[in-house]
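Hi all, a correction to my earlier message: I attached the wrong file for Conjugal transfer ATPase TrbE. Here's the right sequence:
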Amino acid sequence: MRDPLSVLTDAFTSFLFGKVETTRLPVRTSTGQAQAVYLPTAAPGLGDSGVIIGREVYSGKGYIYDPFQLYGQQLPAPHWLVLGESGNGKSALEKTYVLRQLRFRDRQVVVLDAQGEDGVGEWNLIAQELGITPIRLDPMAALDMGIRLNPLDPAITTTGQLALLRTIIEVAMGHGLDERSGFALKVAHAYVNETIVDRQPVLTDIVEQLRHPEPESAEAMNVAIDDVRAWGLDVALVLDRLVDGDLRGMFDGPTTVGIDLDAPLIVFDLSHIDRNSIAMPILMAIVGVWLEHTWIRPDRKKRIFLVEEAWHIINSPFVAQLFQRLLKFGRRLGLSFVAVVHHLSDVVDGAAAKEAAAILKMASTRTIYAQKADEARATGRVLGLPRWAVEIIPTLTPGIAVWDVNGNVQVVKHLVTETERPLVFTDRAMTESSADLEDDALRAAELEAEERAAAFVEHHLGDSESTVA
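and the right structure:
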């Protein structure tokens, strides 16, 4: 029985303001039962045109990505950074991505393959399947008429040749050239290009000219010839390493005839080069500039330049500056640069922090596989990832990664077809898992991802009983 005063008050309120909303008693239930109250939602995708990567973990939607389709709409730049520790699926992602891109007739890919076993690079199986012979850069093979790339190839502009020579020397010396050494190199290069016209100039010609400079070069600057010779001595010693040192044979002769730059896939096999030596950044600088002047053309083709062990580029200020220019230039001609790095700390804390930041800024797409918690937090700070993404990175299982496409962040499971499986899951002892282990891990990851999605919902709705009015 209601209080008469309450009845009178309700009647008076209804008369003034209209009918009062009915009040219902709350119903106590659990989150498991009340989850139907919350309508299913999913983040918007990247469109339906491009390369299929896999599916988005929490919604189950197909995940399609193509920098050439997204460029100018959702992407300010087509470049891509792939991060993660070994054994989590980076290699499988790169290979299937390239194979699927090559299904389009206007695509062309160059891969710098810095890993390998049994005397061949990691991309050897894919190259064989496509009927392509990798360009194997090997100091020992080069001595026996192997592959050579000439830094003084006439296909490279005179300005490009001089910039490349400077970069080689600066990488080897670990510091920039001073004005006097730079002058000695410039006059030697100019003299060689002017006087050698019946063949390709080679590095031996530059070394010889640095050791025995022409009097005219000294007279032009009103200095003694012995001074010019002294200024160029250190430069000559560095270049001599490419001519008669541990890198001899690969760069001290005319460019090998028959390198097919029109093939859909071009693989530079660098697996015979010591990855921890100074040779690797020098090699990447030479290959990068050589490709810039011989491969990238205004022919409306969409090109992908994929670099394994990319910290050799980003961690060297001089090489990074060359590639930074390549990225800016290549964007106008349809170039997508894909850099594969194990740890972001390899580059952001290195000697080329400024250049690394510039290159990372150009990468509008970032894919992050499993990392340790400390590394994940550091990666999140540098890349500006949302907190929830940083928290799940250490828990990711093989084949699953966080994708950040210009701020569109999703968790994606990479899917591999049965046709692709024997090509991408090579049997690596210390780098990537074998096919069987990867297969089992991916199946387990799918189940675990579904459980994690449910746990994610539980975490945000609360584990205890909820009160629903």
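Sorry for the mix-up. The CA atoms of residues 180 and 199 lie 29 Å apart.
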